[in-house]
């Protein structure tokens, strides 16, 4: 079967996210990177395209040229899906144009910079016949998918407590220097949206809480931290969560957790047991029971769920990581493009990005109104 022709917007030069997406796209031999716009400067984009050994004519000056030129090509030659790896403020205009012109889309999170923009994309996608994925990367980990399956199967009983934490310390060298914190795009509302910490990593935790539990957050109460009066963007925060049946949860996110690298942990507790997972040790899922020893579940074994095993590429004992997780999402997108009735749940959909934007705005609103409870309505 011919590979799906993939275009990429952004992600050139030394972009970490670019490497992650390119490796993931190639992992299951489902995609072929065909062209794109890798940099705002065309010369740099061409240089990067040459490095990827792409046809020079498929490395475009901008998105408009990509769309016009590709649509003139025969259907079996043109780009079929486009990955958006640009700064946040470009997600909406790029995704909108791609949807309007019939391209499948894979978009980095957050989906847009406002909830209203996200709703526009949602309406466009519902009227189209294309696939739209939002790369909440961590949902692709086999042990996260095993966790989701075990919770759905009732292995830990009725959920009583949801605890998600995402701690980083990367912004410490910038936030305490007035010049530096004014210069980074992450702290510029025009480029990043109304939130830095919650918008960047808090949405991962929010999406994960809903993904593994199968429940929707119904109400939130937020307390955010900005540190300096001239800093318009949160860089730390705690959000109380209420799910259905008044099930309680807490979401903690920080970019000033000194010394932390990428400490994303998920802990779900039921009346019969608990499950714990740590992103920095992603091949271990811990099952806790009051009357049994701690159990450690690892990927690749035949007794695991089909959903977990779909994303396994190596025998047990061979560690899989962030590239594999993103690769599993790309594989889910590929299967959906080939047959839209299959692989539901194997990749985060546009609606997940829509809920993420709603969460960001409700969180900021809760904080600014004096740390009050706000209903999460779509």
From TrEMBL:
Q: In the record, which residues are listed under signal peptide?
A: none
Q: Which SUPFAM superfamilies match?
A: Glyceraldehyde-3-phosphate dehydrogenase-like, C-terminal domain (SSF55347), NAD(P)-binding Rossmann-fold domains (SSF51735)
Tell me which residues make up the GFO/IDH/MocA-like oxidoreductase domain. Answer: 144-275
Pfam families, alphabetized: GFO_IDH_MocA (PF01408), GFO_IDH_MocA_C3 (PF22725)
Q: Which GO terms describe its molecular function?
A: nucleotide binding
Q: Residues in domain Gfo/Idh/MocA-like oxidoreductase N-terminal? A: 5-136
**What top-level branch of life does the organism fall under?**
Bacteria
The record's PANTHER family line, in alphabetical order, gives:
CONSERVED EXPRESSED OXIDOREDUCTASE (EUROFUNG), OXIDOREDUCTASE
The name this protein carries in UniProt is Oxidoreductase
Give the originating organism. Answer: Christiangramia echinicola
């Amino acid at each position: 079967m011919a590979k799906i022709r993939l275009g990429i917007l952004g992600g050139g030069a030394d972009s970490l996210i670019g490497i992650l997406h390119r490796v993931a796209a190639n992992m299951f031999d489902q995609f072929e990177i065909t062209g794109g716009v890798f940099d705002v400067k065309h010369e740099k984009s061409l240089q990067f395209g040459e490095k990827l050994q792409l046809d020079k004519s498929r490395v475009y000056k901008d998105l408009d040229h990509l769309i016009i030129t590709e649509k003139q090509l025969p259907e079996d030659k043109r780009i079929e899906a486009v990955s958006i790896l640009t700064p946040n403020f470009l997600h909406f205009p790029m995704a909108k144009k791609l949807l309007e012109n019939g391209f499948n889309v894979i978009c980095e999170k957050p989906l847009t910079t406002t909830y209203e923009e996200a709703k526009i994309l949602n309406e466009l996608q519902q009227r189209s016949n294309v696939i739209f994925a939002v790369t909440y990367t961590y949902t692709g980990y086999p042990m996260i998918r095993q966790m989701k399956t075990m919770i759905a199967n009732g292995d830990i009983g009725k959920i009583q407590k949801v605890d998600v934490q995402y701690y980083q310390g990367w912004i410490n060298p910038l936030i305490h220097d007035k010049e530096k914190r004014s210069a980074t795009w992450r702290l510029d509302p025009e480029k990043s949206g109304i939130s830095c910490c919650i918008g960047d990593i808090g949405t991962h935790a929010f999406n994960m809480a809903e993904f593994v539990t199968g429940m929707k957050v119904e109400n939130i109460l937020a307390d955010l931290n900005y540190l300096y009066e001239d800093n318009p963007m949160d860089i730390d925060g705690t959000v109380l969560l209420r799910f259905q049946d008044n099930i309680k949860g807490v979401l903690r996110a920080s970019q000033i957790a000194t010394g932390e690298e990428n400490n994303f942990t998920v802990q779900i507790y039921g009346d019969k047991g608990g499950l714990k997972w740590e992103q920095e040790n992603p091949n271990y899922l811990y099952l806790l029971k009051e009357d049994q020893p701690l159990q450690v579940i690892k990927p690749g074994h035949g007794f695991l769920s089909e959903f977990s095993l779909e994303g396994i590429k190596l025998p047990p004992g061979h560690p899989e990581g962030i590239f594999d997780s993103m690769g599993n999402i790309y594989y889910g997108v590929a299967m959906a493009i080939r047959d839209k009735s299959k692989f539901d749940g194997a990749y985060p959909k546009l609606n997940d990005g829509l809920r993420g934007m709603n969460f960001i705005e409700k969180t900021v609103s809760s904080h600014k109104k004096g740390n009050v409870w706000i209903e999460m309505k779509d």
